[in-house]
Amino acid sequence: MVHGDAGPAARLLTLFEGHRLTPTQRRIAHNLVRRADDAPFLSSVEVAELAGVSQPSVTRFAVAMGFDGYPALRRALREALAEAPAPGGAVAGAAEPPAGNALQQALHAEAENLRQLAALLADPEPVTGAGRRLAASRPLPVLGLRAASAQARGFAYFAAKVHPDVRLLDEGGSVLWDRIDQARRAGATALLCFALPRHPREVVRALAHARETGLWVVTVADSTFTPVAAHSDVLLPAAVGTGLAFDTACAPMMLGRVLLEAMCDALPDAQARLESFDAAAAARGLFAQ
């Protein structure tokens, strides 16, 4: 969740964090944080309308938070916002921890990559615009080879819960072009690519082919100065960490989740699909918790 102020929103976020919530429940929490000032005074119906979910989903959210129902949760929200920050407590501008050893330095560098990404998202239009184009594509091909295959697979896994036809392209070879052509013939209008170092030439060629077929290409990459930039209609940069033996990709993964959030906002039936999945998962006893 993205939150901007260090006051009411931060206190609500502290209340919500640490709980295992479904995507629908996280959306409810996200919207309450966004409306932190008046959240304790909203009825369950108003919260449901705010988050675009059903009223029973709000009740289930309250129970997942450990309360008997929504009224008890609302009392907790009022108490959380009534608490004044402790004098001398930790604040957003506190001094950074010392550099530490090599492992700690790698983690600090990765945290800095996330801070840079947050700064870029001060203008959300590139991401929200890309999310709308990807949401409208039927099917939606998601490409990622070698180091980027994990990012593509993770995105495709979650996107399939809200998008009716997601096609993961994580294997190279001559069949890759065939699958791009098949997606285009089936009606695809856009393609999402995750491109990370070292950049396989095959990805560059695949994106060039995708654009030749008429697909609109969105690429999540480690930099705007990558070989895939010339073959992308929109390139969304998120730096990778280089402090360990193998690159770390926390920022590209987070950018993928933000892009997925933008897609959810653009899909009118996204919440209905999520709630349907939650109900089916509960009926099947799919998850241990």
UniProtKB/TrEMBL annotation:
GO terms for biological process: carbohydrate derivative metabolic process. Gene3D superfamilies: Glucose-6-phosphate isomerase like protein, domain 1 (3.40.50.10490), Winged helix-like DNA-binding domain superfamily/Winged helix DNA-binding domain (1.10.10.10). Residues 8-84 form the HTH rpiR-type domain. PROSITE patterns: HTH_RPIR (PS51071). GO terms for molecular function: carbohydrate derivative binding; DNA binding; DNA-binding transcription factor activity. This is Transcriptional regulator. It comes from Wenjunlia vitaminophila (Streptomyces vitaminophilus).
